[in-house]
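INTERNAL AUDIT FORM
Audit reference: QA-55
Scope: verify that the stored structure record matches its stored sequence.
Auditor: D.O.
Record contents follow.
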Amino acid sequence: MKKRRRLKTPSLRAGCPFCWEWLPTAEKLTTVFSSDSRGGRCPCGAVFVVDETGRLGGQALLDALALACDGDLDRAVKLDSKRDYEVKTRPLGPERLADHSPAAPKVWAVKLKN
């Protein structure tokens, strides 16, 4: 029987798109929409979620909004992107700075505007 290798999660090495400080290490999130999300909070007030596949941007955005609303998913889905929050993405890791392909791992950051 062949043993399955666990994939290593890439170390988060991205700057906050709002304040440009290094983001803290991503942790498993429990108060969000999906069960396997990782992310955290920047000292500037922004929240971030890691999209390791680069293909789950909608899920990552929903998780970031739920995290920004302290787990209140109902409030998160009612927020207006033009009025209530700002969203930015950054490539995951310094080696990815030139990689802008749609499937590149990304960090999704959200900051509420109030």
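Auditor finding: record pair retrieved intact. The helical segments are 57-68, 73-78.
Action required: none
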